[in-house]
Amino acid sequence: MAAIEELKKFIDKTDEPYIMEVEKGAIKRYAEAIGDPNPIYHDEEYARTSKHGTIISPPGFFGWPVKSRPHLSGVRKELLEAIMKAGYKRLLDGGSEFDFLLPVRAGDTLAASGRIADVYEREGKAGKLMFAVTETTYINQNGDRVANVRSTLVCS
Amino acid sequence: MAKEIYWEDVEAGNEVTPLPKIPTTQMLVKWAGASGDFNPAHYEDAFANSQGLERAYVHGQLKRAWLCQLMTDWIGKQGMLKTLSCQFRAVDWPRRMKTMEEPQEGDTWWCKGTVTKKYIEGDEHFVDCDIWVENAKGEKTTPGKATVVLPFKGLS
Question: In terms of CATH, what superfamily is A3-155?
Answer without folding.
Answer: Hotdog Thioesterase (3.10.129.10)
